[in-house]
Write a structure and sequence with these properties.
The chain has 337 residues and is of the alpha/beta class. The protein has two domains: 116 residues, NAD(P)-binding Rossmann-like Domain (Rossmann fold), CATH 3.40.50.720; 191 residues, 3-Layer(aba) Sandwich (Rossmann fold). 29% of the residues lie in helices and 14% in strands. The protein has eleven helices and twelve strands. It starts with 10 loop residues before the first strand and ends in a 10-residue tail after the last helix. Bound molecules: (2R)-2,3-dihydroxypropanoic acid (DGY). (2R)-2,3-dihydroxypropanoic acid binds next to loops. One of its GO terms (cellular component) is cytosol.
Length: 337
């Protein structure tokens, strides 16, 4: 990997070494490759310096693609490819203004999702070193029981990952599923999509409801809506106060969707039973003094929802195929329109 580029070959900047996928870029003789050399988020100053003259850039979640980035890159920039399904770090209006194509990695990570957070929190795994005792370490059961013949899961956002999660939860005995649409969804396309979804998941009694009803009726709420301004703090004090005292909140989408202070208060004051978080506001820089870290019924994972070797390899390969398609003016397998 070199920092010196050759004229006439398109320059491709990669913001993090892509491990076993990297040879797919390194063996190409038709590009000049520049890669951030460290295994941590790319320094902004390094990125702004190196992106100058680039035709394509592969970014990760923490790399803001905005006007500053576009100005640093220059007019020859053709494509930004993010190795993620989420894209709230990319200012799509700015990329559109500059005619820059955007690639992302949907589908390839849908199946990696595991309801591990909810399983961890229902049995309080983090306290598993305490001695056995009849009711210690117990949590609400996910499947139906004699005393609770109905179990309801609610999905804030019902895209590909939410549907794959519901498919897995069926095996746990979930009998009823609720979902909300995106706050900006178009009413007409929504009703066609709703009808199709409700037919597909009729055995789970799938219903589209508003956020209030979802909060009030769900035993487990899964936050699976995209991040960004539109969904900022969608789960705040008002939502949490409507949830049931034995319910669990699981967030595997973006930290910004859940107000962490309100959630810490909800756990502390027992408005809800527990929380499983794969993402938290401010990640990856969460200190040990974060109020959620002190809550015993909060399991926090370090954003590992897609962390299987196969899925990450597929994501990296998709990001590479997108950048190559974009720099040579060809098809991008997953282009964000
Ligand atoms: C994504 O791709 O957006 C995920 O959050 C990372 O696994």
């Amino acid at each position: 990997l070199s920092d010196a580029t050759t004229p006439n070959k398109p320059k491709v900047v990669v913001c993090r070494h892509l491990g076993p996928a990297m040879p797919q870029l390194e063996r190409r003789t038709d590009i000049d490759l520049v890669c951030w050399p460290e295994d941590r988020f790319c320094d902004r100053a390094w990125l702004l310096h190196n992106v100058k003259g680039a035709t394509g850039v592969i970014v990760l979640l923490g790399d803001a693609v905005n006007e500053e980035f576009m100005a640093a890159a220059g007019q020859q920039l053709k494509v930004v490819s993010t190795m993620s399904v989420g894209y709230e770090h990319i200012d799509l209006q700015a990329t559109a203004r500059h005619g820059v194509r955007v690639g992302y990695t949907p589908d390839v990570l849908t199946e990696a999702g595991k309801p591990s957070d909810v399983l961890a929190i229902t049995s309080q795994l983090c306290w598993g070193n305490l001695a056995w005792s009849p009711f210690k370490l117990c949590g609400p059961q996910l499947s139906t029981t004699l005393s609770s013949p109905k179990r309801t899961v609610g999905f804030l956002g019902f895209g590909r990952i939410a549907q794959a999660t519901l498919a897995r939860l069926v095996g746990f005995g979930i009998t009823h599923a609720l979902y909300t649409g995106s706050p900006s969804s178009n009413a007409q396309s929504v009703s066609a999509r709703d009808a199709e979804l409700q037919t597909r998941y009729r055995l789970q009694g799938l219903e589209r409801v508003d956020a209030d009803r979802l909060a009030q009726e769900s035993d487990v709420v899964f936050v699976l809506t995209p991040g960004g301004k539109e969904t900022y703090h969608l789960v705040g004090e008002a939502f949490l106060r409507k949830m049931k005292p034995l319910s669990i909140l699981v967030n595997t989408s973006r930290g910004s969707v859940v107000d962490s202070d309100a959630l810490a208060k909800a756990l502390h004051e027992k408005w809800i039973w527990g929380a499983g978080l794969d993402v938290v506001e401010g990640e990856p820089f969460i200190g040990g003094d974060h109020p959620l870290v002190k809550e015993p019924r909060c399991v926090i994972l370090p954003h590992v929802g897609s962390a299987t070797t196969e899925t990450r390899l597929d994501m990296a390969t998709r990001a590479i195929d997108n950048v190559i398609g974009g720099i040579f003016g060809g098809e991008m397998p997953s282009e964000l329109k």
